[in-house]
Amino acid sequence: MSRISLLSNPLLLGFDEIERLIDRANKSGDGYPPYNVERIAASNGSGELLRITLAVAGFSREDLDITLEDSQLTVRGKQTDEAGREFLYRGIAARQFARIFVLADGIEVRSANLSNGLLAIDLERPQPERLVRKIEISDRKPQA
């Protein structure tokens, strides 16, 4: 069964990569850990500032790994069970996770901070230059 593309409109040329990015983002896991994405007011007139905040209670800095590869920001967490501990009841499981965020071209990862069980990753999208270019119209016939 073939799937109808949202971006198959003939007026949208060259957007194949966006469709692949949307497909990749839709496969991003089970919802753990919960996260927020917020826009932060820029103080110095720079580009747009964004912050991803993940709730990672129980994870230390050593348990977390953040990588950026091909515009894909991946946050992984891995906890290990401590040997020698005997639980009468265990409601807090040691679990692993991988949360993937697909970033637009030009977005830069500025910093990451872990405080009070929240991992905050700050991103910046620099202001793009607006270019207007005049296209000359010629009398020549197009070549095949």
Keywords:
elongated; Immunoglobulin-like; 1 helix; three-stranded antiparallel sheet; 33% strand; 8% helix
Task: Please state the structural category.
Answer: mainly beta
How would a crystallographer describe the biggest sheet?
4 strands, antiparallel
The arrangement of helices and strands along the chain is: HEEEEEEE
**What strand order characterises the main sheet?**
1-2-7-6
Which residues sit in consecutive blocks of at least 5 with pLDDT less than 50?
Answer: none
Named at the architecture level, the CATH assignment of the domain at 30-125 is Sandwich
Structure write-up:
The protein has 1 helix and 7 strands, in the order αβββββββ. The chain has 144 residues and is mainly beta. The two termini are 36 Å apart. The chain has a domain at 30-125: Immunoglobulin-like. 8% of the residues lie in helices and 33% in strands. Strands 1-2-7-6 form a 4-stranded antiparallel β-sheet, with no helix packed on it. The chain has a 3-stranded antiparallel β-sheet with strand order 3-4-5. A hairpin with a 2-residue loop joins β3 and β4 (72-77).
Task: Describe the SSE topology.
Layout: H1 16-26, E1 35-40, E2 48-55, E3 64-69, E4 72-77, E5 97-102, E6 108-115, E7 118-125
